[in-house]
Amino acid sequence: xxxxxxxxxxxxxxxxxxxxxxxxxxxxxxxxxxxxxxxxxxxxxxxxxxxxxxxxxxxxxxxxxxxxxxxxxxxxxxxxxxxxxxxxxxxxxxxxxxxxxxxxxxxxxxxxxxxxxxxxxxxxxxxxxxxxxxxxxxxxxxxxxxxxxxxxxxxxxxxxxxxxxxxxxxxxxxxxxxxxxxxxxxxxxxxxxxxxxxxxxxxxxxxxxxxxxxxxxxxxxxxxxxxxxxxxxxxxxxxxxxxxxxxxxxxxxxxxxxxxxxxxxxxxxxxxxxxxxxxxxxxxxxxxxxxxxxxxxxxxxxxxxxxxxxxxxxxxxxxxxxxxxxxxxxxxxxxxxxxxxxxxxxxxxxxxxxxxxx
Length: 358
What we know:
The protein is an all-alpha fold. The chain has helices at 13-18, 22-37, 40-65, 73-110, 116-131, 148-162, 172-188, 193-205, 209-225, 229-242, 247-259, 263-276, 281-293, 297-313, 318-331, 334-347, 351-357; strands at residues 2-4, 8-10. The radius of gyration is 26 Å and the shape is globular.
């Protein structure tokens, strides 16, 4: 995860893979939000600006002083100056990390999540760092040190929070939903979904009741992505018996139905759902995809109408723009389709392609 200038916070899907609860994801977000609220990036930039000139002058002086002497004085001056700059950046960043921990854990608690999740996630991240590296990096060289002291400080802050505890929002329903979305992230980012099918089936045989639904959901999505639509239908129907109105199950169920050969039935299912959940972005995108898949001009026009509110709100999303471009092509709106394709190119880092489309 990272914080960026302008108040942006980004996370990678690896966070979903590593976290074991919704509170652990929230802990990381609270930490990054603290970087933003405390203006750490701006302060780091200002600090480096102040330090660069004096250190550069000191390097120049050392180089001039060693010019007439024998040995490696010039090289030592350059290396020493670069080392000072790097060490100052590391010191400043480490200070920011501890400050973000301190403020983030209180933000986490105030938001109703379990504050102990921060220490738990740090410990897991530390184990992952050690297991992925054959060489232990010294703490003073790390900008994000995951150390025993950092974990202990997080636990101590939890004790302080417990003296005046906020209401915790982490419920069984929240955690069940988190587990579903974590398996979805596993499948959608996998390059070999067919291998996941065997993994999920093996884990389901020994799963307890709390994990059965999420593992079955992962299995259904893996089957769908590996071209086994009929098998995916069977797994999704089992899930829908317990949660018939859950759109997380209904949307892939419609996709599986379409890929299994019942395009009309899938479209009817999505049409009924779209009337009920007008503001549900994933559902409306799935509905538009199904309309586009028919290849009919009238359905392209209908998909355009479905997508316009989403494009207005999420115009910077390439997936939304790509679906809208296809709808425009079917509807005969060629200029609008080219504009949408240009948006896709722009937001996927291809500005020259975008200009050619325009």
